[in-house]
Amino acid sequence: MPRPKTLPNEEVLDAALAIIRREGPDALTFAALSAACRLSASTLVQRFGTKTGLVRATLLQAWDRLDRLTAELAASTAKTPAGAVALLVGLSGDYGAIESYADDLLILREDLRDPLLRARGASWRDVLSGALEERFAHMPGAPAGIGLMMAAQWQGALLWWSFDPRVPVTVFVKESLEHFVAAFRQARETHSS
Question: Are residues 17 and 90 in the same domain?
């Protein structure tokens, strides 16, 4: 089968992300990507320069998708604590089974190694925390920083789920976050009494 003459970067980077998810970041080479997307390795080198540039471009595209999903969920969920839970459950659905979650931790390792990718993560943290904070804004006595606290609870729930994934991740996350919100409400009621 002849090689395609062109392929949009988005499709090339989708193939690169599939390699990373399936085989790990070290398996992403220009030769492996060439075989996956059928563009010549020299064409890929012209587009991305180095393996570091290729990995960075791949993960920046993944961050762009996460930003879009976060914005969509923020726009479509209620500005209530239940809406905050729904937003985070929606973000959790992408993890799938434990194998997928474990493989994505290798991607996180790459994000943490690259200052530009770390900055994208910090920016997303701020956007996500702000969206969660908005969902508590109408509640009297909501502590400043509740959005970041809830995001941290969510990340912890994902990690604890990974050690014992007997139920779907979305079920575990939803229950964990509902307990978080209930504890916050109980503490607020106790404090106001």
Answer: no
